[in-house]
Amino acid sequence: MELHDLRRIGLFDGTGDDQLLALIEAGTEVPFECGDVLFQENHRAGFWWVLLDGRIDLLRHVGRDETQLGVMDVPGRWAGGFRAWDEHGAYLATGRAATAGRILRVAAEDLRRLWAARFPLGLYLIEGVSRSARNYESMARQREALAALGTLAAGLAHELNNPAAAATRAVDALGDAHEGMLSSLQRLAAVPISADQFSRIDTLRRELGPRAPIMDSMGLADREDALSDWLSDKAVARDWVLAPVLAGAGADVDWCERVAAAMGAAPLEAALDWVANTLSATGLLDEVKESTRRISDLVAAVKSYSQLDRASMQTTDLAEGLESTLVMLAHRIPKGVTVVRDHGADVPRIQALAAELNQVWTNLITNALDAMDGRGTLRVSTRLGRGSVIVEIADTGPGMSPETREHAFDPFYTTKGVGEGTGLGLDISRRIVDRHRGDISIETGSGETVLRVRLPAAATDTAGRTDVTAG
After folding, report:
1. Is the same domain home to 353 and 429?
2. Helices (H), strands (E): how many in the chain?
3. 110-137 tens-digit pLDDT
4. Which of the two ends of the chain, N or C, has the fewest CB atoms closer than 10 A to its terminal CB?
5. Considering the entire predicted model, what is its pTM?
6. Are residues 40 and 176 in the same domain?
7. What is the rounded average pLDDT of the residues 169-198?
């Protein structure tokens, strides 16, 4: 490797020839072929790697899944070497060659020696900055993750509580209804009635349903009164109990007349009591079914949100991810906030890390809800535009000041009170969108604040575009 090999790289602009020669002497030029693994995630970052030619993909592995975090494809992009100033430094990604090329490799010990000899104060400064940044960011991200986990757990518990409680109440009542149905069946059999009579009564029962046909409350009350009067005239005891159940199931006086005709001289009350108990049991079974279906839907929404049963990189329906996020945050949406959905029918599925995008939607929707302070309109939309899929999260809150817009994506910047936010939500969202080769922007005006995310409609990978993404 010659001096001109490094002089043509922008990374070394302003570096003297003697310094570059010392770097060449300390380093080694390493040729590589497509598929070669140069460094591995979680291994000690014992070397500093500077790309000379070619392309290297930066990969992470979670279980069996492989995710592309970024790419080194421009001479001068570098990775690793962090043990030169951090004894615990490790590669955060695996570097695998995507093409043939060359790379400069310098041992971390030699890098530290060169730095200490040329600029010892700078070495101490970067050690302190690196250590402090790692500690602060680690603590803040842990706090952000725990806060998000607590919010989602509380929301899920809240959403599950209602259908679970309804199912419990229905099951308890179902036991009483079952006992009542058996008791009324015994009384009906003791009348006695013939098999033909029982068949006619059962046929009439099937005409009714556990819920009333659509009817206003006044109409239903009038029907109950008419049935109660008719039952009282027929000397049927407990007419005040039977009339509401029968009216609610769609029975009227004509239906009761047909039951009386089927019973003949046998007591009418036994037949009506059995029908009413059967309808109650059927209605309670439907309530249990609906409650457990709701619980199942919530579990499905959680799986869709977290993508626990899917590969990390997958063909993703953005509308589905937004809807599962709204389900997870349902407890956070006040009654005064109206949610408007506007999903384009022509929006294609894209290749993406669905769980990470759901984290973006969570951050944006949460911020929008906080901005409206309990009242307003939350608009969630997707559409296709010029080769990009566009997702918009808009709120009708008071908007952002120019200063807030300028610093909104800065790490640790927040307008919330102490203890209410870490200032990492939008920073994390921006990083995720960057990894998907997209962009995120803010637009204010027309009574809305819009967070707009653009993602490539034909994305096939999530290579990032930052210079330093490993180490």
Report:
1. yes
2. 13, 15
3. 888 887 776 665 555 565 555 655 565 5
4. N
5. 0.47
6. no
7. 84
